[in-house]
Every structure is written in structure tokens, then in C-alpha cells.
Amino acid sequence: MTQIFYSKDHEWVQIGEDGLATIGITDHAQEALGDIVFVELPEPGRNIVAHEACAVVESVKAASDVYAPLTGTVTENNQAIVEEPALVNTAAETTAWFFRMRLEDPTSVNALMSKAAYDEFLGSL
Amino acid sequence: MHRRLGARMVEFAGYEMPLQYTGIIAEHQACREGAALFDVSHMGQAHVVDARAFEALVPGDILGLQPGRQRYTLLLNEAGGIIDDLMVANFGTHLQLVLNAGRKHVDLAHIQAHGVAITPHFERALVALQGPKAVAMLPEAAALRFMDAAKLDVAGIACVVTRSGYTGEDGFEIGCAAEDAQALAGLLLERGATPAGLGARDSLRLEAGLCLYGNDIGEGRNPVEANLTWAIAKRRKTGWDFLGAAPVRAALEAGPAEKLVGIKVSGRAPARAGAEIRNAQGERVGAVTSGCFAPSLNAPIALGYVRADCAAEGTALDLIVRDKPIPGVVAPLPFVPHHYAR
């Protein structure tokens, strides 16, 4: 089983066997946002830099940016959540992933948190 | 009590208020299909005895308001700008006002400055029971029709009830003493009402095409621009004897430069307050004042001021969201039909 990493901006990152990083928002993030009604994702081919705003999530009430957890190039985005944004509320950490990217530096993922560290981080909020 | 019901709290007008309990969409649907209970105790209740003196401060027909009836009206400044929008109910011995939370102290000072005696009862609680099943959950008030007002006993609690609200649905606003509020809310929840927060209240009122003070109306807007000309009573349009009458009359005769309109937005991305509005030629013609995703329409909607030549129903507009134009069209209000018990 591949390890999942977490960012302080409430994204998760999973490195697949092909080396690509799959990125989504955490269950905590979807819970905090409430009913999600719109998602805007970065297009394949876009180069994104860690901490830059690269996707948008809108709930009934408010818009929120999603920040890139790492630097790299987007290879794919998840049209399923564009068509059905509410999936993010029900499956944030599984099928409702946001996009995949090729990391500029594959070791950069080690700067992120483990599940245990993220849970501890949530507890400190 | 809110926290016990699982509420996520936010700060609003100096009050800690429930934003949502289970979720905005579920609470919104509960109000459209069943009955939702909102705590709106932050709103200011006040009493005025001298109806004639009070009438000089508003464009509504207050002397013609019968006992047991309620009416929507506006406090205007000398320039015709809207100081607040409010409900006035005639209880025979006095008028009861319900003022916006963020404006109640301003209103009080304004009314007093014009020599009208007003007694604030800001400590009183107010809940709104809204939805098609509201009347089944408050049978004590079943005899009231839309915009009726009465003092009623609800399970031993002395209540001031009006058949009105801010959702476009049938329902009641129920005032009581602060110490009775938990018992009253508990009773209505026991009878099957769904607790609902400010989030659903906002999406419901926006679908119903109702203005939010501070967003859609304010001191910089007059009733003509704000599409509230209907709140100027016929009799007052002959006398023109209310505070701010001259500028309002001038705006009515000349036509407003900008008008508040409803806009249906294509796609799924909501255009929020502040979003620029452009016409088909790409000129800036206005800005959004309220916008959200409308759960009952499964589409984004907005209210905004646009140049008068762009205010006709069916006018195509672009709303600028994250630097991209999103097509919209001027739509009739309300977005979702009202279901009042007239």
C-alpha cells in the first residue's frame, strides 16, 4: 500500500507506481467547506509551483482556493468531480481526487506530513 | 442549544450565530419541502406608540395599517437613501418594529433624533418557522393569513406571532421573552422542525428575490434603484411628506441611473458579491451585490445593480468570476415562486 502524505493546506498526495502524484483535499477540508457545488481544476500541461492557488472549490456560501502542495506539471484532472461536485463531500480522500501531476522533484513529497502528523496538526487547530 | 444541535457558529453583526447544522443544502430543502426553524434573535424588536409621527419617517402607509396586520417598510435618510428595511405590525396599542441586527442601534438613534419615542426590546428572542409544513407545526397560529400579526399563547409561552418570513415560503416569525426562547425552540423542534442556520437563510432569501441590508441595499441606494418602489404607498405618493420624499420623487420621475436586478448565471460557478457585470459590448455596467448557488434551481443566481439600459428582463450580461466572463441573463424576481398563505 502506498503511503499518503498531507499538507497544512489540507491536501493529500499519493504517489502511484508510475511515479505520478494524485492530489485531493482532505476529509477535514470538505467537512469545513460544506456542500460543494462547483470545482475548477488545473488543465493538463499546466506547470504549478508549490503553494500557488491552482484549483477552486465553491460551496453554497463561499469560494475557496486549493493550493498546490508540491511543484510539478499537471498530467490529468478528474472530470467526475467537475460534473458532480458533491462527490467531494462523500469521497474526498478516495474517488474525488482533483488532479495528477509529475513532480519536479520526487523527493519533495517527504517534506509533507504523515497521516499521524496531519491528525496531530488538526488537533492543534 | 445551537452547539448541542451540532451547529457551526460564525460571527454576524456582532453575534455568534449558527451558520449551519447538518448542511446548507439539506436545511434549504427542509424549508422548501417541510419546515425549518431559524434563530433570528439578533434582529431588534422595538415598540412605537405614535404611528403618525413614525409615518413621517417611512414611505409606507402606516396610518392605514389595520390592527393585526403587518407591512414591510423602509427608514429613509434625507437624501432618500435606505437606513434600514423593516417590518411594522400594528398591535392596536403600539406598532411593533423588527429591525436588522446590524442597523438596530442606528435606527433607534435616527428615530429618536426625529422626535419619535421608541422603546427597544432588543433582549427579546425571535425565531422563524418557515416552510409548507410550518402551519402544521404551529396550529395555534393557523387562523392567521399572510402578514397577519397576533399575540398568541403557545404551550403556555406568551408569543407575538406574524405570518411572514424571509424565505419565500409560508411560515411564521415568533417573538418571545428571552427566558422562554429555549422552551419555544425545543417545542417546535419536537414538533418536527429542522434547525437551520444563516447559510440556508441566505440562499432561501436570495431565491425568493429578497434584499439583504448591507449587501443589496444601504444608505447609498434609494428605493427606486433598489426595485422597492412598491413599498412607497399610493397615498404617500400624493402627499410626498415622508423624510427623503423629494429625492425619491425625483428618482421616480427621472428614472434611476442603475437598477437592482436578478441574474441567472450559466454553468455552476457562482458569481459572488463584488463581481463585475459587463454588457454584450464588454463595458462595465454594474456589480453583483449578492450571489450564491441556488439549491432549488441547481444553478447559480445573483442580485446586482446594473445600468438602467441593461436592466430589462432577458438582457444578456457577463459576470466576471476569477477574471473570466460567465454569461448571465436578467431574470424576473423572485427566482423561485413565493408560497405565501394569502
TrEMBL record, chain A:
<dbReference type="InterPro" id="IPR002930">
    <property type="entry name" value="GCV_H"/>
</dbReference>
<dbReference type="InterPro" id="IPR003016">
    <property type="entry name" value="2-oxoA_DH_lipoyl-BS"/>
</dbReference>
<dbReference type="InterPro" id="IPR000089">
    <property type="entry name" value="Biotin_lipoyl"/>
</dbReference>
<feature type="modified residue" description="N6-lipoyllysine">
    <location>
        <position position="61"/>
    </location>
</feature>
<protein>
    <recommendedName>
        <fullName>Glycine cleavage system H protein</fullName>
    </recommendedName>
</protein>
<comment type="subunit">
    <text>The glycine cleavage system is composed of four proteins: P, T, L and H.</text>
</comment>
<dbReference type="InterPro" id="IPR033753">
    <property type="entry name" value="GCV_H/Fam206"/>
</dbReference>
<keyword id="KW-0450">Lipoyl</keyword>
<feature type="domain" description="Lipoyl-binding">
    <location>
        <begin position="20"/>
        <end position="102"/>
    </location>
</feature>
<comment type="similarity">
    <text>Belongs to the GcvH family.</text>
</comment>
<comment type="function">
    <text>The glycine cleavage system catalyzes the degradation of glycine. The H protein shuttles the methylamine group of glycine from the P protein to the T protein.</text>
</comment>
<dbReference type="InterPro" id="IPR017453">
    <property type="entry name" value="GCV_H_sub"/>
</dbReference>
<dbReference type="InterPro" id="IPR011053">
    <property type="entry name" value="Single_hybrid_motif"/>
</dbReference>
<dbReference type="Pfam" id="PF01597">
    <property type="entry name" value="GCV_H"/>
</dbReference>
From TrEMBL, chain B:
<dbReference type="InterPro" id="IPR027266">
    <property type="entry name" value="TrmE/GcvT-like"/>
</dbReference>
<dbReference type="Pfam" id="PF08669">
    <property type="entry name" value="GCV_T_C"/>
</dbReference>
<dbReference type="Pfam" id="PF01571">
    <property type="entry name" value="GCV_T"/>
</dbReference>
<dbReference type="InterPro" id="IPR013977">
    <property type="entry name" value="GcvT_C"/>
</dbReference>
<dbReference type="InterPro" id="IPR006223">
    <property type="entry name" value="GcvT"/>
</dbReference>
<protein>
    <recommendedName>
        <fullName>aminomethyltransferase</fullName>
        <ecNumber>2.1.2.10</ecNumber>
    </recommendedName>
</protein>
<comment type="similarity">
    <text>Belongs to the GcvT family.</text>
</comment>
<feature type="domain" description="GCVT N-terminal">
    <location>
        <begin position="2"/>
        <end position="234"/>
    </location>
</feature>
<dbReference type="InterPro" id="IPR029043">
    <property type="entry name" value="GcvT/YgfZ_C"/>
</dbReference>
<keyword id="KW-0808">Transferase</keyword>
<dbReference type="InterPro" id="IPR006222">
    <property type="entry name" value="GCVT_N"/>
</dbReference>
<keyword id="KW-0032">Aminotransferase</keyword>
<feature type="domain" description="Aminomethyltransferase C-terminal">
    <location>
        <begin position="259"/>
        <end position="336"/>
    </location>
</feature>
<dbReference type="InterPro" id="IPR028896">
    <property type="entry name" value="GcvT/YgfZ/DmdA"/>
</dbReference>
